[in-house]
Amino acid sequence: xxxxxxxxxxxxxxxxxxxxxxxxxxxxxxxxxxxxxxxxxxxxxxxxxxxxxxxxxxxxxxxxxxxxxxxxxxxxxxxxxxxxxxxxxxxxxxxxxxxxxxxxxxxxxxxxxxxxxxxxxxxxxxxxxxxxxxxxxxxxxxxxxxxxxxxxxxxxxxxxxxxxxxxxxxxxxxxxxxxxxxxxx
Length: 185
Fold this sequence. Notes:
By secondary structure, the protein is α+β, with helices and mostly antiparallel strands. It has helices at residues 2-95, 99-112, 123-135, 164-170, 172-184; strands spanning 118-121, 139-144, 152-155, 158-161. The two termini are 24 Å apart.
C-alpha cells in the first residue's frame, strides 16, 4: 500500500497545485465580470437618475447574479476537468506499474482480498510470479485470462474481478468523491 499511497499522494499534490491555479484564474475572471456588470449598472443609474433608480438596481442585481452564476459554472467545470485529469493520471500511473512494484501490488491486493478461492491471472502474470503467489499458500489456477493488469478470484461459480479496469469502473464514484474532498475540501 506504501507505493500506491506515494503515487496517489504525488498525484493529489500535483492536482492540488493545478486546482489552485485554475480556481485563482476563474475567480479573477469572475471578479472582472462582476466589475463590468457593476460599471454597466452604475451607468444606467446615472442616465436615468431618480426615475430609473429602481430599474437600475434591478439591472445591477441581475447582472451581478448572472456574472456570479457564470463564474460558479466556470469554477465547477474546471473542478470537474481537474477531477477527470486526476483520475486519468492515477489510472495511467496504476497501469504503468511494472516489475517488482506491480508484483508487490498484486500480492498485497490478494492478501487483502476478502474473498478467497482460486486465483486466475493473465498468462504473463502467471508466468512472471504465479509460483510466488502459490508459494504464499494461494490456489493459483492453471486457467489464464486477458485481464490487462490484475486478477480474478473464483469461488465455485462466483467470480470476483480485481482487474485494474474493473476496480476503476466500480469504484469511480468513490474515487471521485475522495479526490474532490482532498482537492477542493
